[in-house]
Write a structure and sequence with these properties.
The protein is α+β, with helices and mostly antiparallel strands and about 325 residues long. It has helices spanning about 5-20, 20-25, 80-85, 85-100, 130, 205-210, 220, 265-275, and strands spanning about 40-45, 50-55, 65, 100-105, 110, 120-125, 145, 150-155, 160, 170, 170-180, 195-200, 205, 225-235, 245-250, 255-260, 285, 310-315, 320-325.
């Protein structure tokens, strides 16, 4: 390992873990129209067709306030919206406060709330329970890998198992969405660059992850449809990401039940660490790890099959429901 990066890692870890983490996290607040962007951002289409819209919900499963159709200067996708910065957030806030252009949730098809990100970055072995189920020691530094951003799908889209694998597994994860370009920051600065959080499924072809492609994770993690996201990006002021229940079910049977308090490397540290290595851009997505209960480490091992229904939920954010197809 590069000695400069080793020194940075040590300094970051000492600074982060010696601070009172709770004091750096924003508390849960009720929605207020005076807040710049304290809400749930969604991308959607109307069921009768037409173009994509950017909208906002004030509650899980609530009707959608259309933002992008009201003001033509506001993009219809979250990544471009984030790139425009504070003045555009203020425009969105005013539209939401007026609440005049509302799409009933029953008339909407929810898409992934983030599309065309520059990066989708993942963290492995970052829950104590996931390490324990493998009898592995807790890592001393984070393990990053990636997915192609083109494999992202929506909260209710099908997950397609390609014929080249028969070991497709589930991993429910809390995902961080970056709001501003950032490079080389401290952990105590990370919240200034985070826009919000969403639910992710790190679908994994274990045979390709573990025994194919010479041990590199990328192909096993990056098959088409292998990254459902949604149903919304919840802005950071609305939830405390340090203590959220996180669960997944297959065909209604609970498979994973953990809490983000189990994270070995906390969110602010992960964003800071990654920013030492690569520039993060608005709309970049960071999957922060999965709790115990994945199929690979069950006895006997369990894998997803066509016709299965995979549901993934994080407290305060919402639920994904993806049917497995072939």
């Amino acid at each position: 390992m590069n000695p400069n990066l080793t020194r940075i890692t040590g300094n970051l870890r000492r600074k982060f873990f010696n601070n009172d983490i709770a004091s750096n996290l924003l508390s849960i607040r009720h929605f207020s129209v005076s807040s710049t962007c304290n809400m749930r951002y969604v991308q959607y289409r109307n069921k009768n067709g037409g173009q994509q819209h950017l909208g906002a919900q004030l509650s899980i499963g609530g009707d959608i306030i259309d933002i992008s159709s009201v003001d033509s200067t506001i993009p219809n996708n979250l990544v471009d919206f984030l790139k425009l910065g504070q003045s555009t957030y203020e425009k969105a806030r005013r539209i939401i406060a007026n609440g005049k252009s509302v799409t009933p949730i029953s008339d909407a098809v929810l898409l992934s709330p983030v599309t065309n990100s520059d990066k989708v970055v993942c963290v492995g072995l970052n829950y104590t329970g996931h390490c324990d189920e493998q009898n592995l020691p807790y890592p001393k530094e984070p393990m990053f890998f990636s997915k192609f951003s083109s494999v992202v799908v929506g909260p209710n889209d099908n997950i397609v198992i390609p014929p080249i694998t028969n070991q497709v597994d589930w991993e429910v994860e809390l995902a961080v969405v970056i709001g501003r370009q950032v490079k080389a920051i401290r952990p105590d600065q990370a919240q200034d660059y985070i826009f919000g959080y969403t639910v992710a499924q790190d679908i994994s072809a274990r045979d390709w992850q573990k025994s194919r492609n010479n041990g590199q994770f990328l192909l096993g993690k990056s098959m088409d449809t292998f990254c459902p996201l949604g149903p919304a990006v919840v802005t950071k002021s609305k939830i405390d990401p340090s203590k959220l229940a996180i669960k997944s079910w297959v065909n209604g049977v609970l498979k994973q039940s953990g809490n983000t308090s189990e994270l070995i490397f906390k969110i602010d540290f992960l964003v800071s660490y990654l920013s030492q290595i690569v520039t993060l851009y608005p709309g970049d997505v960071i999957l922060t790890g999965t709790p115990a209960g994945v199929g690979m480490h069950r006895k006997p091992a369990e894998y997803l099959k066509p016709g299965n229904v995979l549901e993934s939920e994080i407290e305060g954010i919402g639920r994904l429901r993806n049917v497995i197809n072939s």
